[in-house]
# Entry
Amino acid sequence: MVVDSEVVLDVEAFRAEFPALRQQVRGFPLAYLDNAATTQKPRRVLEAISRFYERDNANVHRGVHELSVRATKLYHEARATVASFLGAERPEEIVFLRGCTEAINLLAHSLGSRLRPGDEIVLSELEHHSNIVPWQMACERTGAKIRVAPIHDDGTLDLEAYRGLLSERTKIVSILHVSNALGTINPIREIAEAAHAAGATVIVDGAQAAPHLPIGVRALGADFYAFSGHKVYGPTGIGALYGRYELLEELPPFLGGGDMIARVTFEGTTYAKPPARFEAGTPNISGAVGLAEAIRFVQEIGLERIGRWEETLTKLAHEALGDIPGLTIHGPKDRKAGVVSFSLRGAHPHDIGTILDTQGVAIRAGHHCAQPLMARLGVPATARASFGLYNTPEEVQALARGLEEVRRVLGL
Amino acid sequence: MSDLRELYQEVILDHNHRPRNQGELPDANAVAEGHNPLCGDQLTLYLKVEDGKIADIRFQGCGCAISTASASLMTEAVKGKSVDEVREIFHRFHALVTGEAEGQEFFDEFDSLMALAGVKEFPVRVKCATLAWHTLQQALEGGGVASTE
Ligand SMILES: Cc1ncc(COP(=O)(O)O)c(C=O)c1O
# Structure
């Protein structure tokens, strides 16, 4: 396969904006193929954060002074940027949180408080632990039950079986948009339609979708949609939860404290309207500023183009890895998002990871926080290469060469 | 020898491909499970302890080359040893793989365990090399689940 990257995307120009990519690891140029875990940050994001601290730093909502006004304005603007990124109707539908995990915990707590014994929550076999454990905790508190929608052998959701699980008992369907372990893209629109027909609320874990696909929460039919900034070229410790405003308005708070109240007396407290109701305490202001800059960065390039480029890399990887004896790629062959998850007969993923690392190739080896999925696939773990907008065909070749070295070192 | 070749030397690959003392031990009187949450490795260790000595030992489980080879080598090294001796060997082995035993003459009688010395150049893999040993310790202390975390 011949790739003319210029046609799709000027990768070299983008790479130059990522300081962390310009380094040698163990004497080799770094090939960072662990983007599903976290992405590197472009200089403009780092600069936006330091500019905030150097010039505008103050607490938000609390001061009449110039710096506080500026910080508050930047924070509001960041909210608007996230709202437009997700296709929300208004900025007040965006709650800033630590990330996807915190968002799901908020929902499991606040939406979960309405669950009754016999109610059901539908998840899928693809879920990340962060979309399993908070629901198990909610079930322990309320007596509700988890039902699990199965996948086909190719790692795609069994829609038929999923529909079969829905009933009037289904109160919540919480499902990931893109699988971090396999790259599977779930048909959220169909999933949401069926869930709504059953009267359930739809929560989408968008942690892996946000960096790869254009998202329109309205068109998807998501009632709630969560993602983490650090997987979209933004800083760690910041993420967002979208919630349809009518739903956020009915939702009880999660954490209590400053900024989330309308009025406090010792007799009782009136909560603020969303999103403030869900943002107790001083928020991650610099994180929000950095995230907004990261979003502008990907929007300027265009998620369609980013997605197409990653698809090219994924195809190349399937070609380059497909010839390696004993190598199996898990999950769908195509129509997936930037993830190549594989096993090599006779080589444990952990050993693969170590040997690749000695050649500067960074991948993830393990269960990808999806142990139930690993059990379903019948493997203890997989090796996973995951692509970002700055990866190159040469890096895919470095991965393939590295795997030949794995075979040599392990005597396969 | 490069760090990598030293890590994956012949002895390790051999014990990875053909682990010794693998399987269940029907008359075990101590059992423990070990988990390495980092990579999902799991191991069950079966012991027959008689008169304060390890009369027999076997392991079952799946793991990376380092943890499998380490478990296999461990079973060979501790068979017939007293519980106190085992504790001492683990102590020394731990020092070996973490690099704290640099330059010390520790392993005259446990030559084969020296094969894991290469782990010290790969600090993230120390837990793979010690999983079986932590599990052994757990089994000797009354069973249950050991975790490298
Ligand atoms: C699918 C999916 N959901 C949720 C998460 C959790 O994200 P975070 O750790 O940023 O909260 C991840 C991150 O690995 C993920 O891949």
